[in-house]
Amino acid sequence: MKVAVIPARGGSKRIPRKNIKDFCGRPMIAWSIIAAQKSGLFDHIIVSTEDAEIAQVAREWRAETPFTRPTDLADDHTGTTPVVAHAVEWMQDQGWPVEAVCCLYPASPFIHAEDIRAGLDLLQSGDWAYAFTVTDFPAPIFRSFRQLPEGGVEMFFPEHALTRSQDLPEALHDAAQFYWGTPEAWRSGKPMFAPHTIPLRIPRWRVQDIDNEDDWVRATHLFRLLELHKG
């Protein structure tokens, strides 16, 4: 059995009610639910939330809300892994024969069903605990710098001040779309960024964190552009 878990708490501060706010004609969370449905992989698509309105919207888009997330797992400081671990424990308490669990973020309108399928293939390609989406940085991070309090700048890696960009190591970052994992990995709290995790690379132009209003506007324009190109 394969199960999708979409963690969607109700207390978003920077974009109030972000998970159910209208995004290009649908509640934001609906895009993740639809991608999970289109993948054809899941026996259950569960939304983990403490919020009654989010739960109602999730059910309207044919996701399941079989339990209410405990409030101590719905604050600003709770990470993703404990939330998914709670869901896995609930599934196993029901006697579900769960083989793999995919955490899909609720504010990820650029998720593709084929990527979800490719992620599962990677997870099952070896002795992996997790498989998740990554992309490359648009500029070399080893040439990055910060602004000093007095106004000047300082490189984080001054030893690379004269290194050619093509000679620098490639750096990747979390694309924040979905995370496949074994039930044991989720329940034991294994770290995600470790040698037991295999990355699925997706193009940079399909990646956009949505944490503030500027991100929301950028994501809206990008989504509409991609939809226009698709059409």
Automatic annotation (TrEMBL):
Keywords: Nucleotidyltransferase, Transferase. InterPro entries: CMP-NeuNAc_synthase, Cytidylyl_trans, Nucleotide-diphossugar_trans, PseF. It comes from the Bacteria. One of its GO terms (molecular function) is N-acylneuraminate cytidylyltransferase activity. CDD domains: CMP-NeuAc_Synthase. SUPFAM superfamilies: Nucleotide-diphospho-sugar transferases (SSF53448). PANTHER family: HAD SUPERFAMILY MEMBERS CMAS AND KDSC, N-ACYLNEURAMINATE CYTIDYLYLTRANSFERASE-RELATED. This is Acylneuraminate cytidylyltransferase. It comes from Oceanibaculum indicum P24.
